[in-house]
Specification:
Elements (H helix, E strand, L loop, with lengths): L1 E8 L16 H13 L6 E2 L8 E10 L6 H11 L4 E8 L10 E11 L12 E2 L6 H7 L5 E4 L12 E12 L2 E8 L6 H13 L5 H8 L16 E8 L1
Parallel strand pairs: 3-10, 5-6
Antiparallel strand pairs: 1-3, 1-4, 2-3, 5-9, 5-10, 7-8, 8-9
Helix pairs in contact: 1-2, 3-4
């Protein structure tokens, strides 16, 4: 039987989502607990990886087991046994053709920046940025990312293909924080953290909107920005057809 679970987690307590030998990870914890419940070795597939320190409000994962169990009992059993920085919000049975990663229609990510007074209690959950930022400049610049582009200058590591489509990108205030919101079908390694890092340079007037477009169009690699920390990054939702 194949199941889909919705999972939230505090990424500051894990070495990323993907299972790593001798490291505490979200995928590793899910596999450990579900294997114990099912009394068989279980492989858990996520909608995508999140970086070390990045959080999720609604990560989606699927797994297959030989037992046909009640979905409420699966949810309760996982939550009883798993690390308390992970919580399974929902469980449902799915058809054999469904895949948590390859069936994704769109994902929504938020990146939160505290541009006010530093708060040590929130250091693992929002990125503190002390420099003054021009929100209007960033609001205009972020629109450049919308559409289909090659994101080679915003992806860490080498890939055969850097093409990606961003459906929506915007910036707004959420309480005292600045929220950068990106919606798309897929995102590559460090891509959001790099895009926000470049937008911060725009907000400080160190980079123009035109410079950002040149980076996106792969016309230059000379314009630099910083890959910002994962602490402010949240996987908000994953949607399917």
């Amino acid at each position: 039987m194949k199941y889909l679970i919705s999972v939230s987690y505090d990424g500051s307590k894990f070495n990323g989502f993907q299972k790593l030998k001798n490291e505490l990870t979200v995928q590793g914890e899910l596999e450990r607990v579900i294997s114990k419940i099912a009394k068989e070795k279980v492989s858990v597939k996520g909608s995508g990886r999140t970086d070390k320190g990045a959080h999720a409000l609604d990560q989606k994962c699927h797994f297959e087991i030989n037992l046909d169990l009640d979905i409420y009992n699966i949810k309760r059993s996982i939550n009883d046994l798993i690390n308390k920085s992970i919580y399974v919000k929902d469980c449902q049975k799915i058809n054999d053709n469904f895949h948590a990663r390859f069936s994704v229609k769109e994902k929504c990510y938020h990146y939160y920046i505290n541009n006010k007074e530093y708060n040590p209690i929130r250091k693992d959950y929002v990125y503190y940025y002390r420099d003054k930022l021009n929100l209007s400049l960033m609001e205009e610049a972020i629109k450049i990312f919308i559409g289909k582009h090659s994101f080679k200058n915003f992806v860490s590591g080498k890939r055969k293909n850097y093409d990606c489509e961003i459906i929506s990108a915007k910036i707004y205030k959420e309480n005292e924080d600045i929220c950068f919101e990106f919606i798309g079908a897929s995102f590559y390694t460090y891509m959001i953290r790099n895009m926000v890092g470049a937008l911060l340079e725009v907000g400080k007037s160190n980079m123009s909107k035109e410079d950002l477009k040149r980076l996106l169009d792969n016309e230059t690699e000379a314009i630099t920005y910083t890959t910002i920390p994962a602490c402010g990054l949240y996987l908000i939702s994953v949607k399917y057809e």
